[in-house]
Each structure stands twice: as C-alpha cells, then as structure tokens.
C-alpha cells in the first residue's frame, strides 16, 4: 500500500510494508529530486522491501536475479513502451473477437478461421 506526491520537481513515494508472517508494519519512504532520478528511487524502494521481508538470502538472491530492470533510464521511453504493449494487447483482443464473429457467422469463411 502506498502513495506518491510531486512537489515542484521532487517526487516522493510513501509505502507501507505489511509483513503478515511477523505481524509487523514498516513504513518505507523514498524521494527523487527530479523525474530523471525516479527509477533509482523505485529501485531503492524495491531493495527496502526485499530487506524487510522475512526471506532467506537464497530467496532474496533469486528475487533480485529475476527482477525486471529496464535497459532505458528514460521515463518517456518507458512510458511509450508501456503504452505500446497495452495498445498491442487491446488490438489483439479486439481483432480476435472480430474474427471469432466472422467465423461464427460463416463457419466456412477460411480467412476468418486462419486469423
């Protein structure tokens, strides 16, 4: 659970980690002086979460190895990439629905079945 706030150029993220196993609540806070440093702040937040979990060192290593790390530090590039993924997923879903509609209206319609 958490929230973020932007004051001027600074972006602050306040989160709460609820460890149900140890019945403990830990507040976590990070701040990025500008939008350019936001990815570093999010990385710090992720590391804080990992450190505060009751997990073994091996599990933490595995989590870190599997975590996604963007190859770009540009928030604009990451935003465009995310939008592209969403659009592609939506278009695939809508096109499949349309093609299914074609094939149910005419089961012999080879182009619709192939698509």
Q: What's the gist of this structure?
A:
By secondary structure, the chain is α+β, with helices and mostly antiparallel strands.
Topology (SSEs and partners):
Blueprint: E1 2-7, E2 10-19, E3 24-32, H1 38-52, H2 57-66, H3 75-105, H4 110-114
Antiparallel strand pairs: 1-2, 2-3
Defining traits:
2 domains; 3-stranded antiparallel sheet; 4 helices
Overview of this structure, please?
The structure is a single chain. The chain is of the alpha+beta class and 115 residues long. The protein folds into 2 domains: 1-69, no CATH class; 71-115, no CATH class. The protein has helices spanning 38-52, 57-66, 75-105, 110-114; strands at 2-7, 10-19, 24-32. A hairpin with a 2-residue loop joins strand 1 and strand 2 (10-19). 3% of the residues are buried.
Strand order of the largest sheet: 1-2-3
Order of helices and strands: EEEHHHH
**Spans of at least 5 consecutive residues with low confidence:** none
- The N- to C-terminal Cα distance equals 42 Å
Q: Mean pLDDT across all residues, rounded?
A: 78
User: What share of the residues lie within helices?
Assistant: 40-55%
Shape by Cα distribution: extended
> Structural class of the helix and strand makeup?
alpha+beta
Rounded to the nearest angstrom, the radius of gyration is 22 Å
Please summarize the sheet with the most strands: 3 strands, antiparallel
The fraction of residues assigned to DSSP E strands is 15-25%
Number of extended strands: 3
Overall tally of structural domains? 2
């Amino acid at each position: 659970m958490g929230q973020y706030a932007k004051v001027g150029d600074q972006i602050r993220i306040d989160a709460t980690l609820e460890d149900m196993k140890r019945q403990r609540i830990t507040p976590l806070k990070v701040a990025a002086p500008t939008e350019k440093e936001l990815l570093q702040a999010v990385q710090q937040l992720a590391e804080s979460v990992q450190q505060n979990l009751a997990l073994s060192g091996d599990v933490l290593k595995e989590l870190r190895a599997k975590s996604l790390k963007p190859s770009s530090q540009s928030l604009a590039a990451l935003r465009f990439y995310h939008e592209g993924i969403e659009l592609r997923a939506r278009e695939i879903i809508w096109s499949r629905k349309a093609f299914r509609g074609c094939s149910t209206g005419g089961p012999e319609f080879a182009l619709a079945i192939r698509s």
